Amino acid sequence: MPAKLASQPKPKPQPRKKKLTRAGKVIAFIHKYCRVPEGKLVGQPLVLDKFQIDFIKDVYDNKRAITLTAILSIARKNGKTALIAALVLVHLVGPEARQNSQIVSGAQSRDQAALVFKLASKMVNLNEDLQAIVRIVPSGKSLLGLPMNVEYRALAADGTTAHGLSPVLAIIDEMGQVKGDQNDFIDAIETAQGAYDDALEIIISTQAPTDGDMLSIRIDDAIRSDDPSTVIHLHSADNLLVEGQGTADIDLLDPAAHRAANPALGSFRSAIELQTRVEAADRMPSMENSTRNLYLNQRVSRSDVFISPKIWKSGIRPPEQEAFDMGKVFGGLDLAETTDLCAFVYGAKWKNEWHVRCMFWKAEATLIEHAKRDRVPYDRWASEGFLLTSPGIAVDYEVVAADIAKELEGLDVEGIAYDRYRFKTLEKKFGELEDAPDLPFVPWGQGYVSMAPAIDAAEIEFLNKRIRHGGHPVLTMCAANAVVIRDPANNRKLDKSKSTGRIDGMQALVQMIGLASSIETEEDESSIYEKRDLVVL
To answer: Check: CATH 3.40.50.1220 for 312-524?
Structure first.
């Protein structure tokens, strides 16, 4: 009998390969074909970090709608430009390539635009497969994807414009550098995408300095509107803020703030370089604003900060009544617009310290609207007594005059420095008061001539920790918004750090100290014969 064949085991069914999603194909292409273009890992496969993978998934696998706009805002040195270069190749010869289409990346300067092109070119040259299908055109800072005839061009705002193009993908590099809410270069790129219903715009940038700048408006609209076609990933130290706090409340040295703004920290973002920078900024106030903007991705001006948060907090001790009872009192008055914030700051120098108090007024009808506009709790401050109000939509100067007169009753007031703007109206209201006090008002300009010496004097007092302001929240807001600007002769005056920020209280405080300093100087420089009798030798 023939031998029985041994029974063969049934082959195990092979698991089906999971079909890659659109985002999965993008990620797989980058991992397979893109190489680290420069640095200590040059030539090695480019491995996307988790935050980059999450961003790509939300953009290309958007379950709510087709993504038309994507915003990734991160601190500097987190692989922003390398990610842009990789995405360019994805749309040039990768899974997102579209027949006879155009891709552009736009930057505000030729150097920044050239950097994106150079990194993409280096990625091509580091991979033989890409070399075979991508033609590099250095003279035009362009790449040509041969399989689908896709053209990429790097554009700069100070060079070639986007007119005549029709890009299916536009990547805007560092929109945070655009000042104001309009930019002809970006408008040209965005309007050029009108030929497609599904054109994609990707914005990758650190934050802009002010709320009124283009990127800030885009970010705020994306968060507020919850538009399903817009993806927003914002990595900022400000994500740690709680109600009632401001940007300056985030400690420069807080590791949590570093991680919040630098998602690549611990992988390819140098922790040592970051730590060195924030420690230097913590020591030197002149570096603080730029560090907060570039390294913590906070929305603050890179201009020279007047008083750093650390110095300001050193004056948190409350003023003492004895100083006002025994010392000479000076004041500063900034009236501003009647529909906005009016400020009066007064103080007494006692035992080599300034003891400072302040009063602020705002029209009652504007509290809620302006709280939303300025992003500060005017309504809560009013209910807590930190902000005085008058009925209607404009501050009533009669109320201001009466409040100041009552506040200064019985004090030895040496002088009140006032800005000439609108003072005539207030002066009239003082004259109409019954038993109006005879207050020594002194005109004080807010230009460079008057403010430069006043700022110098106030800065010395702050740096020597000789100012006690008690942490009044409205004055603290003004201090956070105040930066200094310079004229060609290097004279300084105060300016606002953002379009909606109020600085009236700091203007008044600086005027107060400036007036006191000028009076002391005049007394020191007066003739010796005014101080004693003539001496006959």
So the answer is: no
